[in-house]
Design brief:
By secondary structure, the protein is an alpha/beta fold. The protein has a single domain, classed as Rossmann fold (3-Layer(aba) Sandwich). The chain is 40% helix and 14% strand. Strands 3-2-1-4-5-6-7 form a seven-stranded parallel beta sheet, with helices on both faces. α6 links the parallel β5 and β6. α2 packs across α8 and α5 packs parallel to α6. The protein is globular. The structure holds nicotinamide-adenine-dinucleotide. Nicotinamide-adenine-dinucleotide (NAD) binds next to α2. The site of nicotinamide-adenine-dinucleotide has 28 residues, from α2.
Length: 279
């Protein structure tokens, strides 16, 4: 049976929560759903003021009930992260409202189809790279300038195990996440001398909007237990479990960690996962 210790219930997760983000302003992209929504829930419960960015206006509004801080400490921006002028305007608005941005979570992302290398279409590659890579590049540029002026900050990018190994996503998606991991390293070098840390998480299979159809199909066929069964922990993950690691990397607990890409994948990327090798 699938279990989710130690966060068996969301209530338990909230009870155990330390408070590490009071007086911090956190900007999260892809905040309307899945991992981004869980990051907002977690960090606002830990005291952060939030700037919530997403393309999906209605979902972003609905996700507002997760925000623990008052309406005065929550700014909502509906935009496409691939559009640099919209990103620049949103960052400017957030800075006018809060005076600073302490934490940036570049989390918005889209999947790609599973076309093979002989079928891949440039238009799909361009859109996937525009969202998954350039979205992070734009926010890092505009928020990063303010962080340099402040002389501090933490950036956490949501990459993927697909950016580390083949088999976890389509070609364009995997390549965009590999590029995001590399951008995490190069921007960590650019910002290190300014006291700004840049890290990434590499989630494995997590139940979110992006993977909804996979989960629905598996449940329809009575095969939910197979999802994530080749991970060392023998299960898939939940958005809250990724949000907890993002919270760590964004916090002062990770004050000597930068340029790293940390798998949050139940051990998936640590093993060869050969069929028939596991009980
Ligand atoms: P999700 O679909 O639930 O959330 C993604 C959010 O990003 C959505 O709210 C969507 O509206 C938003 N978004 C998409 N394109 C956007 C754009 N152009 N501008 C602004 N917002 C946009 O999926 P999720 O799994 O929570 O995805 C979050 C991140 O986690 C993504 O970068 C994804 O690649 C990564 N990830 C997910 C998994 C998984 O198994 N779910 C695994 C590894 C990595």
């Amino acid at each position: 049976m699938t279990t989710f210790a130690p966060y068996a219930t969301f209530e338990r997760y909230r009870e155990d929560m330390p408070v590490k983000f009071s007086d911090k302003v956190v900007l999260v992209t892809g905040a309307a759903s899945g991992i981004g929504r869980a990051v907002v829930t977690r960090l606002s419960a830990e005291g952060a003021a939030t700037v919530r960015v997403d393309l999906a206006a209605e979902a972003l509004k609905a996700a507002g009930s997760d925000v623990s801080v008052g309406a005065d400490s929550d700014l909502v921006c509906t935009l496409d992260v691939a559009d640099e002028s919209s990103v620049a305007r949103a960052v400017e608005t957030a800075l006018q409202r809060f005076g600073r941005i302490d934490v940036l979570c570049n989390n918005a992302g889209i999947a790609s189809s599973r076309k093979t290398a002989t079928e891949d279409e440039p238009a799909e590659w361009q859109r996937v790279f525009a969202v998954n890579l350039l979205g992070a590049v734009h926010f890092t540029k505009h928020v990063g300038r303010a962080m340099v002026t402040a002389g501090r900050g933490a950036i956490v990018n949501t990459a993927s195990v697909a950016g580390v190994r083949a088999g976890a996503g389509g070609n364009a998606y995997s390549a965009s996440k590999a590029a995001l991991i590399n951008f995490t390293q190069t921007s960590a070098c650019d910002f290190g001398a300014h006291g700004i840390r840049v890290n990434a998480v590499c989630p494995g299979l997590i139940e979110t909007g992006m993977t909804q159809s996979t989960f629905e199909l598996a449940r329809e066929r009575g095969k939910e237990d197979r999802l994530g069964s080749r991970c060392e922990l023998r299960r898939y993950g939940r958005p809250e479990e990724v949000a907890a690691v993002i919270a760590f990397l964004a916090s002062d607990d990770a004050s000597y960690v930068t340029g790293q890409a940390l798998p949050v994948d139940g051990g998936n990327s640590a093993s060869l996962n050969l069929p028939g090798m596991k009980v």
